Amino acid sequence: MCNWKELIEILKRPESENLEYKEAKNSFPYSELRKYCSGIANYGGGILMLGVNEMINVFL
Fold first, then answer.
1. How many domains does the chain have?
2. Which of 39, 44, 1 has the alpha carbon at shortest distance from 20?
3. 16 secondary structure, DSSP code
4. What is the pLDDT of residue 60?
5. SS3 22
6. Residue 36's domain spans which residues?
7. Which of 3, 22, 33, 43 shows the smallest number of beta carbons within 10 Å?
């Protein structure tokens, strides 16, 4: 969990091996969520941000 200041700092960062942005405007398929969470966990941990446009890091 993070505070607003930490959240803003995360959103300034580009995607990487341990930071993934997903738009998820209306919903996000459970199978996709499992895939991304599993991938991040297998890499050693990280952050999956739902509701953020991955190209321009904008809240949706």
1. 1
2. 39
3. B
4. 47
5. strand
6. 4-59
7. 3
Q: Which two tokens stand for residue 55?
A: 């190209």
> Is the pLDDT at 22 greater than 80, yes or no?
yes
Q: What is the distance between the alpha carbons of residues 10 and 29, in angstroms, rounded to a whole number? A: 24
Neighbour-count burial for 22-51, b at 16+ CB within 10 Å, e otherwise: bebeeeeeeeeeeeeeeebeeeeeeebbee
- Please, is 1 exposed, middle or buried when counting C-beta atoms within 10 Å of its C-beta (0-12, 13-18, 19+)? exposed
**Identity of residue 46:** G
What is the value of pTM for the model shown?
0.72
Contact 40, 18 (CB under 8 A): yes
In sequence order, what are the beta bridge partners of 21? 49
Please enumerate in sequence order all residues whose Cβ is within 8 A of that of 49, keeping only pairs 6 or more positions apart, or say none.
10, 11, 19, 20, 21, 22
